[in-house]
Amino acid sequence: MKLRLILLAVGMFLSMNALAANPVVTMKTNLGEVMFELYPDKAPKTVANFLQYVSNGHYKGTLFHRAINKFIIQGGAFTPSFQYKPELDPIPNEASNGLRNERGTLAMARTYDPDSATAQFFINLDDNKFLNFHRPHPDYYGYCVFGKVISGMDVAKKIGAQPTAAGGPFSSDVPVQAVIIEDMALTSDSVADASKVAETAEPDKPSKKTSKRKKDKTHG
Predict the structure, then answer these.
(1) Are the CB atoms for 180 and 29 separated by under 8 Å?
(2) What pLDDT, on a 0 to 100 scale, did the predictor assign at position 135?
């Protein structure tokens, strides 16, 4: 009996440590605040890269330059005048980590080259299965999920629902009212320390078939 209690206590301790391992980042925009939990155990290089951009202030003053309702919102590269901010070297694609592009998840944007992600990220507003890893080929490698929204999904949806038009180098999908990341900071080293986390991403109604427009908007 005593041994069972010891094993139970050890198991609880390990579980608590596992929970505490996930950092939390808070993003403040002019439309509200969003909180992310990151998964360094699943995407160590991607999380380290993202946190480096967070710590050096790269995201402060950048736009959400792509907003497609019930698909994704994407940002992290351009200033309000559409100047492209300097970036670090591209990182390896960790999309094969088992995490899926489900509603409320945080993922890296990239070009056609699977290993081309730098600073741009996106939030999935729907379950986007066609963005998942399928096999190691450029057409099927997918987009790396490395975190999820744990608070502020209503803000993400509000950004996605903004009226859009052409802007800067883009022919469409740019919010007419500029959506600006005012600040991005590491809130805590763990989910357990993020005491004000309240809202979680609740599932929407099942989506219909993926439109061609969505398929054309997954790169860059």
Answers:
(1) yes
(2) 96
CATH pick for 22-215 out of 2.120.10.30, 2.40.100.10, 2.40.50.140, 3.40.50.720: 2.40.100.10
Q: Which candidate, 64, 29, 145, 137, places its Cα nearest to that of 98?
A: 145
Tens digits of residue pLDDT in 8-24:
433 443 344 444 579 99
Contact 47, 144 (CB under 8 A): no
Question: Distance of alpha carbon 66 from its chain centroid, rounded?
Answer: 14
Structural domain spans, the chain: 22-215
Model pTM? 0.81
Residues in the chain where the model's pLDDT stays below 70: 1-20, 189-220
